[in-house]
Structure formats: C-alpha cells, structure tokens
Amino acid sequence: MKRRIVKVIVMAIMCVAVRQVLAQGDAGQAGAFLNYGVGGRAMGMGRAFVAVSDDASGSYWNPAGLVGARRMELSTTYTNLYYDTQFAHLGLVIPRPGRTLKDKVARFLVGPSTAVGFGWVGLSMTGFEQRSSTREYLGDFGLSENAFISSWAREEVGSWGIFRYGINLKFVHQDFSGLQNSGSMDMAGSSTDWSGGIDVGMIFQPIHAPVFRIFSLRYLLPLKIGFSVQNLVQPSWKRLGMEKDPFPTIIRWGLSYRWVIKDWVPDNWKGLRSLFGNTQILLAFDREYLDGRQTGTYFGAEGQFIFSESGFALFPRVGINNRTEGTALGIGFCMPFTSNALIRIDYAYGFHPFLDGDNRFFMTLQMGPGLGPSFFRQMSEKTDLPNKEIRQYLLRVIADYPNEYVIGAVNKITQISDSAYARRYFDLTGGLGLANSLFHESWELMKEGRISRAQKKAEDASNEYAIVFTQPEHAMTDSELLNYGEALIIAQRMGPAISVLTEVEQNSLRRSYLMGLCYKALGEWSKAINSFSEAVRLVDTEMDLANMAGLSFLGLGQALVRMEQYETARVALEKLIDKYAQSLDENYPRYPAFRDGYIVDDAQYLLGLTYLLEKQYEEGVASLLRTALFYPNMQYGQLAESNTGNFIQLMQAASWDLMDNLVDRLLNNYFDEHGWPPTQ
User: Fold this and answer.
1) How far apart are CA 53 and CA 57, in angstroms?
2) How far apart are CA 56 and CA 129, in angstroms?
3) 592: cis peptide before it, omega within 30°?
4) Were both Cys, which of 10, 157, 172, 493 would link to 488 (CB 3.0–4.6 Å)?
5) Where does residue 88 rank: exposed (0-12), middle (13-18), buried (19+ CB within 10 A)?
6) Is 676 strand, coil or helix?
7) What whole-number distance in Å separates Cα of residue 160 and Cα of residue 651?
C-alpha cells in the first residue's frame, strides 16, 4: 500500500512540474523535455524549421538538413526557466568532412556529400520534496533528463533536384537524484534509466523534377520540402515497476521558401531592384502530428540582410504557432571572429498564454572554410573528376541561386550535359544564354511559318542581347553579334541590325548576306548591292551554310533590277540558275520565305522580266516560257504558265505598250511578294 501511495505522489509531482515548465499539450508524456525547442533561428521563427534545419540545431529538428550547413558549427544554449528549472543544448555539425577521400565507401559515409552532427539536450529540475505515505518529510530530490544525439546526413544530386536524408541515433537518460527509500519501498531500481531511439528526416529541393517543370527556376529553386519522424524507434522511460512509458512518435512535414525580393520586382523598376540587391526573406511552414493526431501548425520568417562579404549580417525573425508559445520574436547578428571563423549571437522571445515570457540567448561559432557556391564552383573545376560529379557540383551552385557564380555554372552545365534544360537555366540567368536561346526559338518559329510569334521571340532576344551589347566593353563574340543582328532582322528592326552587324570583326558570308537584307529592306539599293556582292565573292572561300550563297546571288539580282542595272543583274541570276537549282536547305533564313522551297524559278522568272524591261521581247518571253517548262510545279513556273498566252498574243499583235504594262504589273507583284519597300 505504501509503495503505491509513494508512486502516485512522485508521478504526480513529475507531471505537474513538467507541465508547468513546458506549458505544452503533450508535456505530461514521456520525453516531453525534447519538445522544448532549441536553436536561435528555429525558436525565433516559431519552431517552423523542418524544411530548413541547416545549422547545428539540425540534429534536433531534422537531421537531413545538416548537410546544407555552410561551415562547421558549434551552437550552445543555456537558460533558467521556471521553478528552479534549467534547460541546455549543445549542437555540433561537421558538413562535408571527407572532401578529399578517394575510397568509394568512405566517400559515401563521410565524403563531400555527407555531414555528421552531435547534439545534447538536457533538462534539470531541483527542489522537489519527497514525503512518505504518512506525510513524513524524507528530503529533497531532483530530476534530470538528457538526450545524446548522433546524426548522419547525405544528399543525392541530379537534374531532378537535391534530395537530402538523415538519421539520428538517440540515447536518453533519466535520473532522480536524492530519492530515499521509504519503509518497505526500495527506490534504488527506479532512480535512473537509459533508453534509445531513432529519428529520420528528408528534405527535397526540386530543380527539373517532372511535376515542377511548369515553374521557372527563378521562383522554384528557393523552395524546399521537409519531412521528419521523431521517435520512429521509440525510446521509453521505465516506470515504477516493470511497465514502460514510450516517447510519442512525432511526424512533421513542412515547406521553406527563400523569397528573393528583387525577383518579384518588375525588371523596369531598376532602382527598386538595385535597392533590394540580394536581400532575402526565409519563409517557413510546418505541420505536426503526434501519435497520428494533427496537433500543431507553425509559421515563421527570417530576414537575411548581408552587409559585407566578411560576414556581417542581421537576421530579424518572427513566428507564430498554435502549439506552444503562440507568437515568437527573434533577432540574430553575425560578425567575423577571425579570418576563418564567425560568431552569431541570437535572441528569441516567446509569448506564453499562461506563463511569463521566455527569453533565450544563443551563441554559435562557425569555423572553417565556407561551403557555399564558391566552394562548389572550385570543386567543379577539378580536372580529375568525371562529368557526372562536375555536374553535381554545378547543380549545387545553381540551386543556391542567387549568387555570383550561377551564370558560369549555367554556361558550363549546358555544355557538358543537361542541354535539354538549357532554356530553363537561361531563363534563370538571363543575358547571352537566354538571348541565344530565344533567338533559336524565334528561328524555329520562322521555319514553322508562325511569323508573329517569331517576331515576338526575336524582340525578347534582342532585348536580352542589348543588355550585354550596351555595356562599355561587352564580351560578345562575332557569332553572338550575328545572332543579335539576325534577331533584329526577324523583329523587323533593320536600322539597329545594321549597327550591330557593323561591330562584327571578321567578315563572312553570313554577315554580308544579312547586311544586304537590311539595306534591301530599307531601300538602300546601292549599299545592298555592295553587301550582296561581297557575299558572293566569299562563296569560293567559305562553306555555304543554309544556302546563303544562292540567296545572296538572288538578292544581288533583285537589287540590280531595282537599280535598273539589268545586264549585270542577268549575270548574277544566270549564275544562280547554273549553280543553285536544288531545293533550299531546311535551315535557310526565311527573310522572306519561299513557299515552294526553291529559288531557281525566281531567278529564271526575274531573268525573263529583265529582258522585257530592256525591250528584248523575244528573249524575255523565251525565258518566261523556260520558267513554265522547266519548273512547272514551282511558284513562278506556274505564274509564268498562266501568263504565257498573254505574252504570245501581245507579241503577235505588236502591242508593246500593253506588253510593258503587263511587265510592270508582274514586276510590282514580284516586289510585293518579297516584301520590298519603295525605292528611296
């Protein structure tokens, strides 16, 4: 009977004391001391941390996050709570410890994609009176509960994203100090207890995972999805007697999002975008389930204001939840300690509905070289690594957007792999990569005959090119300048296209042909003749890509006709007929497009018109008859066929004025078909 009474008294004291200290709905359960919360960042953010967890407190919240730590980190907390109660935490994380290991097993366990962590959480309460069943005072006793946590985490990287997973091996210890035996009751076997358990967690950062490809990388990369199970293997306290009291299983899932403010400001608001720089706000949301019941909802935010590259930074925080302290406020300040170490001081204040406010201070020491984008860029430049591993390091640089190395990483990764996602990468970085991608898209749209969409894409490409081109010392190559000029041509901006093409240092068939197109469209026929003439002079010394040689002969002939230099025009057109009778390459520049895919019928038809314009009617009609005879299935072969009877009838009647009127009408129709402007 006495044993039962003492047992009831002791357990009642424990439950009341712990419940008062923690003021939580699950405080009376075994392991309640592990729900008090650790870490200045997490507590300031209202405990919404399962999808963040990238510091020394990660062992407590989600071991998977440890591999995201930027440096080796040691964090401490010690605070006096209520009623002679002390709470303390010590956390250590060592990210990517074996960066130079070669052995495959060792690299998997402690290599550059892993992290190890250690944590201790302790709660102690003193000053409890022990009395017998007859209310006799037996002395004071205390209660201490401790958890020793060993953590391991690893990340897998692919084009789909970054997947981090981790595990905790947890040993817990409970001790009642000062308990006295009472009568027939022996407390020796009930004063201390050890147990063990396992926690697991994971964090996923999507990049090109199928479900997420509809989102731009600029807005997707800041997202992380976290999940953890605490007490998957449940520790337990031994009650008086042989009965076990297991720790409850706690499941958490959550989201975090690094809100890069400038990316949500319109591009044309340059002053405001510059003001924000790379300022970010980390947003977090958690849901918690205890033994299968949804018990908690958590929201948190952390501003990240970086003042210098040396490490000075300020981190204001706020959080709210329906589970513990309600609203939380916090602030952190980071400053350099030595050339290779930083100190962060954090403060968190929690509002409790029934108890006084909870003030806590935290100190964190960050040591060793930084393991951020700069580190991953350096690793990707090692010459002895396979492309797969280089790609993984580059993906880590990109995933940490925004940073100064993203553009270089994107350019490199699209060269060695991931070309299928080039456009998504270039949307992220903008500049030449995006400009070239948009240009090629506009080019493909021209091939499909979707002219208005092609012009819109070309306009977008031109705007991206212009950002680089207008810099004092731009680094655009001749190929990029040619793309820029051609994009302007597709967008029907011929004047700016000429200015860009003039910057190309090495003359080429493509440059001369594009210049000729611009001058032709502007009606500057003398300059068009010079450019097309330069293009045809390069035919013998340069490979003809995309039929630009044949098109240059046609452009030269057209320009000479407009300048009424008919004899010279016939020379150019006859060379075209002799050398370029085959169909056009599928990648020929469609400015304009030739509906039948041939230009030889154009040349033969225009050749006939030049004879007629010089009053050489027999030669002209004969040339048009050859057009109809040799090219019956082509556009101008059919047009010549439909007018053959008219020409023969007019010749027989010697109606030369009517013949001249018909020639003028056909020539004007030809000009309209090719989109020529009036002569200037």
Assistant:
1) 7
2) 37
3) yes
4) 493
5) middle
6) coil
7) 73
Give domain limits for the chain. 2-371, 542-680
Torsion of CA 647, 649, 650, 652, to 10 degrees: 120
The hierarchical CATH code for the domain 2-371 is 2.40.160.40
- The secondary element (H helix, E strand) that includes residue 314 is strand 313-321
Provide the CB-side half-sphere exposure for 297 (13 A, CA).
1
By C-alpha distance, which of 227, 211, 164, 98 is closest to 396?
Answer: 164
Phi/psi at 49 (5° precision): -145, 0
* Angle at alpha carbon of residue 394, lines to 393 and 395, rounded to 5°: 90
Q: Is residue 496 reached through a cis peptide bond, with omega within 30 degrees of 0 on the bond before it?
A: no
d(CA 286, CA 228): 11
DSSP code, position 591: S
Task: Say which residue, 248 or 418, is predicted with more confidence.
Answer: 248
284-322 per-position pLDDT tens digit: 999 999 877 778 899 999 999 888 777 789 999 999 998
Least confident of 91-105, 183-197, 306-320, 530-544: 183-197
Mention every residue, 6+ apart, whose C-beta is less than 8 A from residue 170: 147, 148, 149, 150, 196, 197, 198, 199, 235
Helix, strand, or coil here: 515?
helix
Q: Which two tokens stand for residue 548?
A: 């630009």
Domain 542-680 belongs to what topology? 1.25.40
Residue with the two structure tokens 């084009």: 159
Q: What angle do CA 436, 439, 444 make, to 5 degrees?
A: 130
User: Which tens digit of pLDDT belongs to each residue from 128-166?
Assistant: 666 666 676 666 667 889 999 999 999 999 999 999 999
Q: Which long-range contacts (C-beta less than 8 Å, at least 24 apart) are formed by 404-408?
A: 404/373, 405/373, 405/374, 405/376, 405/377, 406/373, 407/431, 407/433, 408/377
